[in-house]
Design a protein that fits this description.
166 residues, alpha+beta, Alpha-Beta Plaits, 2 domains, 4-stranded antiparallel beta sheet
Length: 166
């Protein structure tokens, strides 16, 4: 999947674009709108924290770093067992899982407050009252959708990024 980013000037135009996208087969769950706090997006698919922050990347990093840290802690516990306990592979697995979980939680708590790097360049336009639409489309249909949107809305500038695999 790829995510297309483009700015729309106002709510009525946003409603029209979303209606076109839905008519073309894009599910509402693949359409996300971002606007300033003064613009009411009632009835439009608003972007969640997952789309507007670095939460997903934070979870990925936290799982990886926490898992490695837990594994290293487990290796230390096996090499130097506390109070003469005999620890085996299960201790390594347990410490790795605990480390990955703790890393994911801590990293997610931090990353949820970091703005998404892909939408940073649109912040000024959003503050001026424009609406950012993010549309998730299959990789094979990316060009067709961009052409279709450009045909109806010629002033649109696009940004594109690859979505992380679920």
């Amino acid at each position: 999947m790829r995510r297309i980013y483009f700015l729309v000037p106002d709510v009525p135009t946003t409603r029209a674009v979303i209606a076109e996208l839905k008519a073309g087969g894009i599910p509402e769950g693949h359409i996300h709108a971002v606007a300033s706090a003064r613009i009411k997006l009632e009835g439009l698919p608003e972007a969640t924290t997952l789309q507007t922050s670095e939460l997903w990347h934070g979870l990925e990093r936290g799982l990886g770093i926490g898992g490695v840290a837990g594994l290293l802690g487990g290796l230390l516990a096996v090499a130097f067992p506390p109070a003469g306990l005999i620890l085996g592979g299960q201790a390594l697995l347990l410490t790795m899982l605990v480390g990955a979980g703790a890393g994911a939680v801590v990293s997610a708590l931090v990353a949820k407050d970091i703005p998404n790097q892909d939408i940073q360049s649109y912040n000024d336009a959003i503050a001026r009252g424009q609406i950012l639409l993010m549309v998730d489309v299959p990789k094979a249909e990316l060009t067709a959708w961009m052409d279709r949107i450009q045909q109806h809305h010629p002033t649109v500038d696009f940004g594109v990024c690859e979505l992380p695999k679920p």
